[in-house]
């Protein structure tokens, strides 16, 4: 898929569209990938030359791990896992922890053995974690002392993170099998007796759980090849080989965004990653100042908060080192981009689009000029190709036509774990990933996400995209946030209902909201029900949790 638009007369150099196969090709320069099939992602990362000194900093304690420290620890932990716990290629290891300086060490050590890392959200309930354990069948777990109760009854051997003690302090000791601490493992000298099996690029490296394009949570199987392609894309995108940079990591490392870039990818470039265990605005801003950060990854709600509180923030904190923010999860509006650029004129906004199923890679804006294609998800990432497919007919569409976005490239997942039906409905026989996003690609090759395919509201058979109405609502001067959901109705099927967050001091009414939209859309798109809320629920990457709002709406019928 590393086809360059410059070497094919059939490809339009402006849009990247090839009429011969109805495919959009990336306008970015293709990135070379290693041809050695016997290669694991840990070895690939560790073999990259760079001038970096400090790899990770714990923002809370100030503890630093140099690159030499990291690789010594990875070697020691992988040796211990192999020699003492019998971890072999293909074994699944569960990692349950907030962001931590140990997170990358565990991931890199596990993957170096050809074993598979599966992460889970620390906020998940014991039932949700138990379901993932039942599905993925890990043989060992890493966790922190405060999360031990969530593994009670799992019968898994547990290695503690951030504790020298192997003795549980709670009365649940009979239910827990604590066998070691990572600090103990890191102190041991690497042994020559460990079993090092041959790992291939196509072997499984990670098993992250995602709701996918539709339905219940499923294990996304990503290979070492997928992660290597991701690392190359990240390093190339930010030109990180040129000079050392410092990134603040507030995004969760258990999520694809945090895991692929900040827990593993950036270590390949010699960059420094400052790790915050959880997001807290003041701690994040203080870390930028204290560690002279140059890059700040964000989700849109945090970026909006920085715009709204810019006067206070600029008085209190020194941002002179910061030159870029990276926003992912949802496209930014013109108002947000220009508002941020006005308040922070020396900081460039970069955006990205990706899925767990594409190892976080898909499209990006790599300059402020590109981000000013307002509402775009960006240009296709290097080595990536796309199709826009009519969801009804299956026909591949052309420029400026809306359909489901399909992606193909070296970072696309192998499939869903032990779920052939879900895999077959998401990956076609040629390796195209059906993203579930309704998009179009314009004449310059920029992707615009119109809506989630399965979130369309069907009003008397007409399709109503919630995102379109949400974008309109956010232009109202008295509305700070909004979400639109389908509300069931026996006469029309579904109609749009809006959850609205008023700005401070606003008294806008339900009829005021409905009238505002009615003047701007076709009759079938009108909002016919409004509820006011303090905030719109969103996931860690900034996407609206519509299912939660639908459940709330139905509970009030």
Structural features, described:
With 557 residues, the chain is an alpha/beta fold. Among the domains are: 11-35 and 224-409 and 440-452, Rossmann fold (3-Layer(aba) Sandwich), CATH 3.40.50.12780; 456-555, ANL, C-terminal domain (GMP Synthetase, Chain A, domain 3). Helix content is 26%, strand content 25%. The chain contains 16 helices and 28 strands. The strands form six sheets. It has an eleven-stranded mixed β-sheet, with helices on both faces. A five-stranded parallel β-sheet has the order 6-5-7-8-9. Strands 4-3-13-12 form a four-stranded mixed β-sheet, with helices on both faces. Strand 24 and strand 25 (462-464) form a beta hairpin. The longest helix is centred in the first third of the chain and has 17 residues, at 67-83. It starts with 16 loop residues before the first strand and ends with a helix. The model is unreliable at 167-174 (pLDDT under 50).
Helix percentage: 25-40%
Subunit organisation of the chains: single chain
* Radius of gyration, CA atoms, in whole angstroms: 24 Å
CATH architecture field of one domain: 3-Layer(aba) Sandwich
Low-confidence stretches: 167-174
What is the number of helices?
16
Largest sheet, spatial ordering of strands: 1-2-19-20-22-23-18-17-16-15-14
CATH class identity of one domain = Alpha Beta
CATH topology of one domain: Rossmann fold
Average pLDDT value? 90
**Shape, please?**
globular
Keywords: ATP-binding, Ligase, Membrane, Nucleotide-binding, Phenylpropanoid metabolism, Transmembrane, Transmembrane helix
Family: Belongs to the ATP-dependent AMP-binding enzyme family.
Pfam families: AMP-binding, AMP-binding_C
GO molecular function, one term: ATP binding
